[in-house]
From TrEMBL:
Protein name (record): PEP-CTERM sorting domain-containing protein
Keywords: Signal
Record-annotated Ice-binding protein C-terminal domain positions: 189-211
Lineage: Bacteria, Pseudomonadati, Pseudomonadota, Betaproteobacteria, Burkholderiales
Signal sequence coordinates: 1-30
tRNA processing in keyword set: no
Taxonomic superkingdom: Bacteria
Amino acid sequence: MPSFRKLFQAPQRQAAVLGTALLLSLPASASLIVNDPVQTNDGWALTGNPIHFLLACCGTAPTAGHQYLHIQNIGGRVATKTFTGLSLAAGTYTVTFDVGSFVNAPFAEFTAGLTAGGDVLSPLSASTPTPAQGTVRTWTLRYEIASGSADLGESLGFRITAPDNGLNRNASFDNLRVDFVAATQESRVPEPATLALVGLALAGLGIAGRRGR
């Protein structure tokens, strides 16, 4: 008859195997690579006027730092930024930022998104709810960059474009954040061998438990 010590050690070993297998199957966590409060003299290049930084205006307050970028649909308005030290890599990018609508004017029409080498990338999905006047909403863009993309290695940046429609429409832009999960991390999913290992460990724990009773 196996000793009590052996009966105790067997479940311990199997539990360790099970724990390792489960850890290997956990989804990868995202890394925050950009946390930009959108402030004056912080690398943003502005073209056109008025597209400038404000402390607060018209019922809309900054959500990060002490300023936000003011966007208006009069003339061609463009704001760009290149993220220092970051280049496009294969994986998933999740971009979030806050947009606000002024209380005294309709919400501005504009587009915003990641760039690679200055060229705007197309998101896989986008959530862009229009804020009611005097409120702020968070927009979310998600990008999937394939390992064979021709843009890999290009400098990563961001671009905001407000078309000239001759209308006095206004918006605020603030609190830009970018999370990234590399393609190699995304591949961490349960493979058949891992699932078989989990099954064996569970079966072993059940047998050991019955023998110990």
